Each structure stands twice: as structure tokens, then as C-alpha cells.
Amino acid sequence: MATLQAWQRTHWCGDVRKGDVGGEMTFNGWVRRRRDHGGLIFVDLADRTGLCQVVFDPSESAEAHEAAGGLRSEYVVSVSGVLVARSEETINPNLATGEVELRVRRLEVLNPSETPPFSLVEEDAAADELIRLRYRYLDLRTPRMQQNLRLRHRAAQAVRAYLDRQGFWEVETPILFRQTPEGARDYLVPSRVNPGHFYALPQSPQIMKQLLMVAGVERYYQLARCLRDEDLRRDRQPEHTQIDMEMAFVTREDILNVTEGLFRAIWRDTIGYELPDPFPRMTHAEAIDRYGTDKPDLRYGMELTDLSDLAAQCEFRVFTSAVQTGGQVKALVAPGGAQWGRMEMDRMTEELQRETRAKGLAWIAVLAEGPKSPIAKFFSEELMSTLLQRTGAQAGDMVLMVADRPDVVAEALDRLRRKLALRLNLIPEGAFAPLWVLDFPMFARNADEGRWDAEHHPFCMPHPDDIDLIESDPGKVRAQAYDVVVNGDELGSGSIRIHRRDIQQRIFSMLGITPEQAEERFGFLLKAFEYGTPPHGGIAPGFDRIVMWLCGEPNIREVMAFPKTQTAQCLMSGAPSMVDERLLRDLHVRVDLPPQE
RNA sequence: GGGCCCGUAGCUCAGUCGGUUCAGAGUGCCAGCCUGUCAAGCUGGAAGUCGCGGGUUCAAGUCCCGUCGGGCCCGCCA
Q: Is there a single domain that holds both residue A249 and residue A336?
């Protein structure tokens, strides 16, 4: 063991308490604030554990006191002295270390600092994200970001500990892989030694983890970096981390159980929150029917009510014709919304028309003296009362209705439901509502190209009862695919995979992939499948999104050390950058930019 | 590719109807004073291409057009 140098830390700033009083100790850290009283100087010294006040008193050390006058924000220092209890009236109750302070005998400036471009003090106003990203190494020094980094680390440890207990092996897969046709655009890497050939950075290790099942790994996991060249969002970065998992000889039930256990372990080990056991479940069809979305937020109610049969009996043409043409009329109830006036409702309608494909919004204010609505005249008293009864609306509530094709009704009421939950303050603080959404459709109609696309991915096993519908009624085929949803956010998606060549062949042909194309694109995978592939399946929870929820952060960038902006740039390093012509020549790559102006 | 919001001192922001209360506040920074502060205090000081370019006007931080940068959303993300 190396000898401790005189300047090296013996204690952490944030850890010292009354019980440590009397001890000689050394702190290493950053000068956060300096309060210079002339004869006496106080410094808030911070390391990653927190903050402790250190006092420079000339009667303790004239030399240290003299030198402390030159300290500035974010100077890196080592201080040694005796930890003392503060007198009763000088205790700072807002500080974990507020009952003690270090009387400094020795100060060493390990490194001075430029004045930071923004304050790193917790209480100060946060700098703009533009400037935070440019100086990310300073931003990460703030208490907020240090907490996020620490919590992310805790979550990663919880994942590894839990999956290890469950018998999973952590296996790393290549970042340089073969380009395979998947959903998103690929990031490509040119090969120097293979002119004109490219690697693709994996959008996920999907194919590799299935090959690991063929390889007999049986239980695999990886905190896997996934790269997709698509436009960014609040919860989408060019590279993100998935808890990628795959299991052999399992049913859907096994995967759901392991995943629930994983989520419960993460929430418990990081923030001490107990997620329900088991998670509630609903089918995809049920989620769409009850909430208008495949990822409903179950922290609040406001379920949708189908009124199509009643609406068909009224005189309101918009309603009757919607139902006659195969559409729907559905409603949701806004508690306490009856007070909204006509102007307010016009505004809400206009907004809904702008943001969704809905053509209008019908409403009934349920007042104590009776229903009030522009469309009341189209309803008999009896029909109106049946309708209100079915929605469960109480006096003081507002019933909001949309009539249209089912997908438009779902889109509009889902949007309305989420907006109203925020506006009406229906979302309980600090609550987590997990949910399994099961039985996703196998295929989705691609209207633009007039063909069927895989909803999840082409290796996903159809529901055993629906296999005979693949060719005859593809829209009805359910997939053995499942999403884990928390608070209306899709946090993970997975499926049981196809391990039989014949079924795989039928899926490919439904997707318009010829055997020749399949051979060309996935030949190595299909060949592998012929050598004793066990039944298998998996899931891939999004690690960044999980940590974002645990930290209570509004976006994924706050829980990533070095995120990129919406234009996929790193403001700190300047990536992506132009590169030297010679490098491009080595790679056999020529840049062909569109002409400027 | 499209829609919306933002850009003024190092930082956070104010700036009304376009007009010598329009170059401002707080904080930070620099200097001096100060032995119990913890957002220390007091005194003084420095600090601006009002993102950039163009236009309208007698006059533009303010209005218009374009552009750059940041954010939110749609498309996209199996």
C-alpha cells in the first residue's frame, strides 16, 4: 500500500458529524464559497459527498489565514486541522455537517481555478442549458448532477446484482457490426482495410443476443449502448443505454416475472420505493379501448367511455354518421370541468383540432340544474340521462366527446386526457404506476407503401392461436410482444422470438421479404437458427428513461454525463467535426456536400 | 422536412406604444474595510457587437425578412 501524502484526504467533507469532533483530519475538495471577515475567513469546502465549513483563524495558523485570503471559487485545496463542535448559536441547521467545522492549521492550494462561467452553488439560479453543456465538466460538479450520476450508478449496480442473482451472464457484443435492415437509420463506420465496406453501429444488440441463445448462454444481459441516427427528443438521444436481456427455454410469463423483479429491485435499491407486486396487466386492445393509447398513465383515472350505441340514436349528424361509417363516439369526464365557459371550450376545441386529427370536440357541462351543451337539443331527455349515467359524470363535471374513426378518437382523447390530468392536478406527486401491455398486433398496415410492416420486429413470435391467420387476416394476428409502461412512458419492450424456420419464413413473406432477400440480409442468423435453437425471448428496458424517472428529471440529458443537443452535437467537444482529408483517403471516403446557396 | 418558444453584462433577467427616466437590476468579478459568517456585511470600481445579416423609419434592443444557436412538439424512432 502506498504511503499517504501529507495533502491526501483522511475524511470526506460531507460525512463528518459531531462524533468525529476532536479528530485531526484532512479534506480534499473545491472551494465553493468564501466568507472573508478580515480577521476570520469561512470557506465552504465541497467534495462529492457534500459540503463542510472550514474556518481560517489567525490564532490557529496565521500562515493559513493569510493564504486563505487568496482563495477563490473552485480552487482545489487540501486543508488539515481539528474538527470542532460549533457553539450553539453558530450551528447551521440547513447543513448535514452544520454542527461541526474544521479549524484549519494547514492549507495547500493544489490547483487554482479560473472564475467559473456559472455558479456551482446549489441554491443559485441554474444556468441555461446551452452554457451548461458547453462546460459540462463544471455542470457535472453541481450537487444536482452529482446526485444524478450517483443514482445512475446505484441503478446500474442494482441491475447487475439482481440479474446475477437470477443467473444471467453479462456478455459484451460488438459495437462494430454488420448493417442489418432495421427500423432506424444506422450510424456507419467505413472500413480502412476493406475498401468500400462499412460497419454499422448497432441500433440494439437484438440479433447478437439471439445468437447468444443459440450459443447456449441461456440467460444473457448487458447494459448495452444503442445507436440510432434519428431526430432527438426530450427522451431520445443518438446513443442510449438499454438493459438488454434474453432468456432461453422460457415462456412469456418467465420474462415478465424476471423483469418485474428487476424493476422492483432498481426502485427499492435507489430510492427505496416499493413497486406493486405483481404489476397490473392489460392487452393492447384493452389499453387502446380504455385509454386511447398503448402506454396509458395509470397514476390517475379518466378512462374513456364508448358511447357509440347511444350516439347512434341521437339526432346529431356528426355522431350518427361517424357511427354509421364504422367510427366511434367516445367520451372522457373532466372532474370539476363544468365551470368552463363557452370561450374556454372553443379554445380547447381549437387546440385539439390543431394538435390532432380530430375535427371537433363535443361537450356537456353537468350542472346541478341539469346538463348544458350546444348539442343537448339533439338528445332526448332519456337518452341524455342514459349517456351521462354511463360516463359516470357527477354534478360539476365536464363530459368531453370525440366522434371519428377509432384511431382518431383514440389519438384525440389520449391527448386530452393527458393534458387535463396536468391541468386539473390529478397526478399524485412521487407515485409510480407500472403496467404490462400485452398482445401487441403482429403487423401494422403501412398506408404509404400499401404493405404490412412488423409492429415490433420480424423475429417476434405470433400468438399460438393466431398462427393460421398470418396469411388470411394479418391485421388480427397478435404477437407475443409486451411493453412495460411506467407513468405513461414506455420503459421497455420485448417479445418471445421465433425459433422455428417455417414460421419465420411465413412472417418474412407477409412482410414482402423474399427468401433471397432474407438470405442476403439475415442469412447468418437463419443459418444459426438451423443448429438447435432453443425457444427464447427477452426484453430491453431503457436505462436512461428509468434513471430519468428515478431522479425526477424532465429529460434524458440530465441523467447522461455527456449528452448531445437536438442537432446531435456535443457543445463541449464540438463533435461531430470535419476531419483531415488524409484520413478520408485512408478510408476510401469522399465527401460530397450540396453546393452552398 | 414542418410548427411553436427563447437569444440584452461572466450568470439570471427587466426593458410598456419605436422616441436622453434606453444600456438597466440582482448576482458574480476586481479593490478596500471588517473575528462567527453560512445567499455574510459595508464602501468603491470595472464590465455590453441587445446572437448575426439585411430591411422599414427622422429614429430599432423594440417592427419586418433571412440566418445561426438552444429548447418543446409533429414527421421519424421495427
A: no
